[in-house]
């Protein structure tokens, strides 16, 4: 076993923490651009969303509803069907129209006021960075300025 390998302290909890932090970053980082654009009210292609179908998801003590429909851009871009409007679309009913913005998501458009969708993504990334940082710090050998790292083997050799 090499000296560098003997010095590492990768225990199962440390390894699990590093894996969990990496996984959270894997989930959060690809969405940064998308949620940043959705948070800004003036980014994206403006247009009109026409509600066609309301769908609800119910969990014990909680329900969330949203609208699917058609997005017609104000530009010459083609109309998109089967898209969802982010949020509950208060006051909408089948056939009703509201302003919306296309920020680049394949099946989702946003209300013109922007969203706070970035908050859970930022929390996911912050927790991932924290876990990864903690795991790496715990797994690497402790170093003091001007002193080499000694593990149990090197200490025995000097006695």
What's the helix and strand layout?
Blueprint: H1 3-7, H2 12-28, H3 32-39, E1 45-59, E2 62-73, E3 80-85, E4 97-102, E5 108-109, H4 118-139, H5 152-157
Parallel strand pairs: 3-5
Antiparallel strand pairs: 1-2, 1-4, 2-3
Task: Tell me briefly what this model is.
With 159 residues, the chain is α+β, with helices and mostly antiparallel strands. It has helices spanning 3-7, 12-28, 32-39, 118-139, 152-157, and strands at 45-59, 62-73, 80-85, 97-102, 108-109. The protein folds into two domains: 7-40 and 115-142; 42-113.
What do you see in this structure?
The protein is an alpha+beta fold and 159 residues long. The chain has 5 helices and 5 strands; from the N terminus they run αααβββββαα. It has a 5-stranded mixed β-sheet with strand order 4-1-2-3-5, with no helix packed on it. A hairpin with a 2-residue loop joins strand 1 and strand 2 (62-73). The longest helix is centred in the last third of the chain and has 22 residues, at 118-139. The two termini are 21 Å apart.
Largest sheet: 5 strands, mixed
Shape: elongated
Distance linking N and C termini: 21 Å
Gyration radius, rounded: 25 Å
Mean pLDDT: 83
Number of domains: 2
Helix content: 25-40%
> How many DSSP E strands?
5
Order of helices and strands: HHHEEEEEHH
Tally the helices.
5
What percentage of amino acids are in beta strands? Answer: 25-35%
Strand line-up across the major sheet: 4-1-2-3-5
- Which structural category fits the helices and strands? alpha+beta
Low-confidence stretches: none
């Amino acid at each position: 076993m090499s000296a560098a390998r003997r010095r590492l302290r990768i225990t199962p909890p440390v390894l699990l923490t590093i894996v969990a932090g990496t996984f959270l970053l894997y989930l959060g980082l690809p969405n940064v651009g998308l949620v940043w654009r959705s948070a800004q009210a003036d980014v994206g292609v403006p247009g009109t969303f026409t509600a066609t179908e309301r769908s609800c998801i119910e969990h014990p003590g909680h329900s969330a509803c949203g609208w699917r429909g058609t997005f017609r851009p104000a530009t010459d871009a083609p109309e998109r069907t089967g898209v969802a409007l982010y949020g509950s679309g208060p006051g909408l009913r089948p056939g009703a129209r509201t302003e919306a913005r296309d920020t680049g998501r394949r099946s989702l458009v946003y209300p013109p006021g922007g969203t706070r969708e970035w908050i859970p993504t930022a929390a996911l990334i912050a927790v991932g960075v924290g876990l990864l940082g903690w795991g790496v710090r715990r797994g690497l050998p402790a170093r003091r300025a001007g002193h080499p790292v000694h593990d149990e083997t090197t200490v025995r050799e000097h006695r």
